[in-house]
Amino acid sequence: MSNPTKSKLTQSPAWRALQAHQTEIADLQMRELFARDPGRAKKFSLQAGALLLDYSKHRMTAATLALLMNLARQADVEVWRTRMFSGEYINNSEDRAVLHVALRTAQEVFPADGDVMPLVRSARQSMHDFSDAVRSQRLRGHTGKPIRNVINIGIGGSDLGPRMLTQALWRYADAPQSVHFVANADPDDLAHVLAQAQPETTLFIVASKTFTTGETLGNARLARSWLIDGLKDEAAVKQHFAAATANVKAAGEFGIAPELCFPLWDWVGGRYSVWSTVGLPVAIAIGMDRFDELLAGARAMDEHFLSAPLAANMPVLLALLGIWYANFFGATTHAVLPYAEALRELPAYLQQLEMESNGKGVDRAGQTLDYTTAPVIWGSVGTNSQHAFHQLLHQGTQLVPCDFLVPVASTAAAAENALAQAAALMAGRDAGEPHRRFDGNRPSSTIMFRAIEPHTMGQLLALYEHKVFVQGIIWNINSFDQWGVELGKEIARTLAQSTATASGMDASTNALLARLHEWRS
Ligand code: F6P
């Protein structure tokens, strides 16, 4: 990394005030704050729609929050929020608007300048018609049989969102089809799913915004061969393949019928695309009415984000607390702990959302940063996580802020375990022997909701989207590009075309490549 010059942010009054404040309160114990103020839990919790956020178990006081709010105001968060919602080209490195919020707005015309709603409505209608045709089994395969398996082929944002939601909302999945997801370049991923399917009754959805992603195209080609081998007719491709893509031309060249190409646009980022036609597998699994509830939930969070004052704005609070630990306590990771099996894919989804958006080292003007951006997001479902890595959360040497996600309709034991973990992390316990001692003072947020239902999931995902947005604004980075994934892709292409050695590569890579060829043969 090149040498950073002092940024405006780290020199700013709001930043410096937070640094000074951190040294003052670093030793403050949360258990003392609770003992001193019986109203603390109430004071530092907030409900927005179905989501209750308890942020009282943080190493902060009302003064901390006031200083964090100054940081948000200094960064013009409200101005940037308006800029995003009005379709300005805030993705400056790609010269694009950022309008995933259009996919769930109720406005007839949006944004006022450069209306995209005719496109959005027409895509939603075609999703509606198609998912209905599949679910009702009106859509038949090449030999006239109904579709039994739907296989989504995509990766990153074209996989993680629909995969996670199909899993999360499995109780609502009332389609006669099973919905599967294939992402990995390792053909085992596809082979495993194909072993459960028959060509006559299988529908593939190739989800790729660019329709150039190597992994997705590789899997799609293998799937096409499997289909043609099975049905002995290339014409079957038109009945068994659909696409969600912004590259209709490439999808057409692949053989996908134009009426089964569901559109996407450059103003929807991959990791923000689950609300778009990329959500088609979810719509097939749960039906379009429930998919509309998901969109309505996200819209409710958009409205909260747009209208609530900063100090009572859930995404803003989560963003600022994240910054508090990343930039002022040196926390390098952040754990996401959903206490529900149905949410087991959520940490992976949030990993892409946060790390691909805010894992940046230069600011909007290209200056190297002199401060930390996105922490490593990681996690797993509770209670499994308790028996795997909570040891480190409780007694390890690192500070790991946690998000506990607690649907109360999950089994009582799971929800109560989540509350127990958060309480233990906060309060700790004095004990005679050092190895039994819990220092406590370990921060967490608890997000509680009644059940995992479409509307609530919409709110939850939009909450994290806006949290990421606010952090990106404060860090003065572009949260909507992902240039960091390009170099590896290029090198992989070079290596794939090389024999024993690749020109221009380092000695280590070439030695490994040579061994790879030797062992493969
Ligand atoms: O390589 C990263 C990435 O571009 C992600 O941002 C994106 O979600 C994923 O690849 C898939 O891209 P596509 O939908 O164009 O296949």
Could you characterize what this model shows?
This protein is of the alpha/beta class. The chain is 45% helix and 10% strand. It has 21 helices and 11 strands. The chain has helices at residues 8-11, 13-25, 30-36, 40-43, 62-74, 77-85, 117-135, 160-168, 188-194, 214-231, 237-240, 248-254, 280-286, 288-307, 314-328, 346-358, 390-395, 412-427, 454-474, 486-496, 507-520, and strands at residues 45-48, 51-54, 149-153, 178-182, 202-207, 241-245, 261-263, 333-338, 376-379, 402-407, 444-449. Strands 1-2-11-10-8-9 form a 6-stranded mixed beta sheet, with helices on both faces. Strand 1 and strand 2 form a beta hairpin. The longest helix is centred in the last third of the chain and has 21 residues, at 454-474. It is globular. The chain starts with 7 loop residues before the first helix and ends with a helix. The model has no long low-confidence stretch (mean pLDDT 96). The structure holds 6-O-phosphono-beta-D-fructofuranose (F6P). Residues 155-158, 208-210, 213, 216, 270-271, 356, 482, 485 line the site of 6-O-phosphono-beta-D-fructofuranose.
